[in-house]
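Running this now, will post back.
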Amino acid sequence: MITSEILFLSVCAFFTSALTAVVGAGGGTALIALMLQVLNPAAAIPVHGVVQLASNTTRVYLLWNALSWPIIIRFVLLMPLGVALGLLVFQGLPTSAVQLLIGLFVLASLFTRQIGRWRESEVPLWAFVPIGFVTGALNMVVGVIAPILGVLIIRKDLSKEAMVGTLGFFGFVGNLLKVAGFALIGFSFVTYGPLILCMVPAAIVGTRVGRAVLAEMDPKLFLLAFRLMLIALALKLIVYDGLGWLLLT
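Update: finished.
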């Protein structure tokens, strides 16, 4: 890779990590989209996993006291099995078709929770066990699954710090397993060593900057920004990724 490409992606890692630390989601999806402008998908998804692992590890460290362990413990129980399934079965599925379905699910979940009896509904704790399994599988196909998890983590008993931190732990586990999975099937991370060594510190610094902004943010403003970010991500998955694929096939 040339120096300008490494510099471009490092700047992207800084700003997208800061964005995720502020509103909980969006940065990972934006970063993978930007990386695909420079790298092919076979390289972008594993390298993206390393960068996001660094970003999420930093977020977990900074928000450790706010993590929701009852949710986390259930989420990680079956996630490794989901990763294995994603490696063995789902790698052959059209990525854009999966992205289209995810986008539709996110929009449906967001809007149904704003009407009638669904307004007060929350995902029961036991549901995070199968959610972890499905997330592990999808993460190996589309690279980022924050839009789905962002919808499911909206709960009255969680502060903005708890939401961002718990999503960070989800990302930490998911990206750790993803990186291990790609390493097991032979992907050479060393080949992209210079890029990784530049993007990782940028992501860590960006996360720290975003954490400082989050501390000063009004909770109601945070929830509004969080929902708007999820809607934007869902529309991107549906219109740009999913429908774009359907029109070209």
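The chain has a mean pLDDT of 76. More later if anyone needs it.
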